[in-house]
């Protein structure tokens, strides 16, 4: 007998025969609290989240996913879906219910002639980079290689190639997906086009993607990384200079502005450890010598403390932040905000937030994305993803080590985020993939999806009327 939580805020007892029948129909594993695999299987990126599902189904393939979804629907089980486990809100795991763990679905197959990759629903970005780089190809993803492809792509997918090649969803050709009725479907522009529209930005609301089919792109053996590091004393002038430079930068250049503290790691000079800095980081998609010329002004915005700009293999750039964000060891509370402008006053407020942040926070508390190029030229209603017409994405990404700091760190994030939102009237939602959205309810989800929300809700009615997939930025059915 197993006690397990349901969608109705209730608990039911699953008889031993029912569990046995499930076990014998699954090629992967059915893991319960007493099993040795339990703690590893329930673990996710954000060390703040310590939830205990009653049961974990670690799927070995599509048939297991179909079986798991049917079992969950039949018993109306509270169900969490884990792709790469990176969602900062922690929705990949639940207390008392069922966790469908996809980590074994991490295969990547590349057709180098057709420039297409088929990627499993539990693969990490590093799995994709590894396979595509072998053919001199790249797939637009995110900037930390341990991030799951599934959550990132169904939520949008911002990475270093977005200026020239668009977001991850803009490179998606099709998905194979198990919907809440346990049916396996294909969705593309030609097959189930409404479902294809919804999974490109609508998050995990519509089913479990078992395979993503992506277009790939040729990439130079090395691309130019712009990585000049400026002391925080120059933050205001560097931020303004970066903003002004980017206004006329080519699509090939994608940039993120980091407010950072130099970590105590050997590859940084010891005298700089612990120093607050700002970094107008960028990657140029094209020949590195061309990129070097383009980025030059970003290296001269003020006296430079340290400049580690260099041509690098793209796959190495994709891993450069990994050591600062160890899986499961970081506690994090993040809030994001789309912004329509960055005037001097707003820039100064951001710098003030950086300098005033809790000093127990870890190294990279604020990140500002300049949203330019191809990703911003896709109409807002072409996919479910709503964030095409914004100029910036601001992230308050506070991470820390000691649970005793949870309350003060969360309070700081919320207060800085609220100030930015209210003082400058930035009311258009956020990139929910980088957001502890659970605290802000349906209003926040609606604000973010804007005009796309009614169509998403109609599709939710069609594909998941019981709201089985609700542990996500949830679009509830209309009833
Ligand atoms: C350190 C770090 C760096 C990041 N960098 C970037 C970045 O550069 N660019 C960017 O765009 N985002 C980035 N993100 C955010 C990232 O996109 C989200 O965290 C995303 O949810 C990660 O996907 P995942 O599969 O690992 O998530 P999980 O935590 O496993 O899942 C999150 C949600 O996604 C859904 N989901 C998971 N698997 C599936 C599936 N197979 N089918 C359907 N739905 C599924 C479920 O609703 C689940 O609740 C980063 C996050 C972190 C923590």
Helix content: 25-40%
Counting structural domains, the number is 3
Quickly give the structural class.
alpha+beta
> Which fold does the CATH topology of the largest domain refer to?
Vanillyl-alcohol Oxidase, Chain A, domain 3
Mean pLDDT: 96
Keywords: FAD, Flavoprotein, Oxidoreductase
Cofactor: FAD
Protein name: FAD-binding oxidoreductase
Pfam family, one: BBE
What is the element layout, followed by pairings?
Elements: E1 2-5, E2 11-14, H1 16-25, E3 29-32, H2 38-42, E4 55-58, H3 62-74, E5 79-82, E6 98-101, E7 108-111, E8 116-120, H4 125-133, E9 137-138, H5 149-155, H6 162-165, E10 172-178, E11 184-188, H7 193-199, E12 208-215, E13 217-218, E14 223-226, E15 228-231, H8 235-246, E16 253-261, E17 276-284, H9 288-295, E18 306-307, E19 310-312, H10 314-317, E20 331-339, H11 344-356, E21 366-370, E22 392-400, H12 406-423, H13 441-449, H14 453-463
Parallel strand pairs: 4-6, 5-6
Antiparallel strand pairs: 1-2, 3-4, 7-8, 8-12, 9-13, 10-11, 10-12, 14-17, 14-19, 15-17, 15-18, 16-17, 16-21, 20-22, 21-22
Helix pairs in contact: 8-11
Protein name: FAD-binding oxidoreductase
Pfam family, one: BBE
Cofactor: FAD
């Amino acid at each position: 007998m197993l006690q397990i939580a349901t969608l109705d805020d209730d608990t039911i007892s699953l008889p031993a025969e029912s569990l046995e029948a499930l076990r014998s129909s699954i090629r992967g594993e059915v893991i319960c609290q007493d099993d040795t695999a339990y703690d590893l299987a329930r673990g996710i990126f954000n060390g703040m989240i310590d939830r205990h599902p009653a049961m974990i189904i670690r799927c070995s393939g599509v048939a297991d996913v179909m079986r798991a979804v049917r079992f969950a629907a039949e018993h109306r089980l509270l169900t969490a879906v884990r792709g790469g486990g990176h969602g900062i809100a922690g929705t990949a795991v639940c207390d008392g219910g069922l966790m469908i763990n996809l980590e074994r679905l991490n295969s990547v197959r590349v057709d180098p002639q057709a420039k297409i990759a088929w990627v499993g629903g539990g693969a990490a970005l590093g799995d994709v980079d590894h396979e595509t780089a072998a053919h001199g190809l790249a797939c637009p993803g995110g900037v930390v290689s341990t991030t799951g492809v599934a959550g990132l792509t169904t939520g949008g997918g911002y990475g270093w190639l977005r200026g020239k090649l668009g977001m991850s969803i803009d490179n998606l050709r099709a998905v194979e997906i198990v919907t809440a009725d346990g049916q396996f479907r294909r969705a593309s522009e030609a097959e189930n086009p409404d479902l294809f529209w919804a999974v490109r930005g609508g998050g995990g609301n519509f089913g479990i993607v078992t395979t993503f089919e992506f277009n790939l792109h040729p990439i130079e053996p090395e691309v130019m990384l712009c990585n000049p590091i400026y002391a925080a004393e120059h933050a205001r002038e560097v931020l303004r200079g970066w903003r002004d430079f980017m206004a006329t930068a080519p699509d090939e250049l994608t940039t993120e502005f980091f407010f950072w503290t130099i970590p105590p790691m050997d590859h940084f000079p010891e005298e700089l450890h612990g120093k607050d800095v700002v970094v107008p980081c960028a990657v140029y998609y094209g020949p590195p010598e061309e990129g070097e010329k383009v980025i030059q002004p970003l290296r001269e915005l003020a006296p430079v403390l340290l400049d580690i700009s260099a041509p690098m293999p793209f796959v190495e750039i994709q891993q450069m932040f990994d050591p600062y964000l160890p899986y499961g060891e970081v506690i994090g509370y993040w809030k994001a905000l789309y912004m329509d402008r960055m005037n001097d006053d707003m820039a100064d407020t951001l710098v003030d937030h950086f300098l005033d942040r809790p000093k127990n926070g870890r190294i990279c508390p604020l990140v500002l994305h300049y949203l330019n190029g191809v990703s911003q030229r896709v109409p807002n209603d072409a996919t479910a993803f709503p964030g095409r017409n914004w100029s910036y994405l601001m992230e308050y990404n506070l991470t820390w080590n000691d649970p005793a700091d949870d309350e003060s760190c969360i309070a700081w994030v919320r207060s800085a985020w609220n100030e930015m939102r209210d003082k400058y009237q930035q009311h258009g939602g956020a990139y929910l993939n980088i957001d502890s959205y659970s605290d802000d309810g349906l209003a926040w989800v609606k604000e973010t999806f804007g005009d796309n929300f009614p169509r998403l809700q109609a599709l939710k009615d069609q594909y998941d009327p019981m709201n089985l997939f609700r542990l996500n930025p949830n679009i509830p059915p209309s009833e």
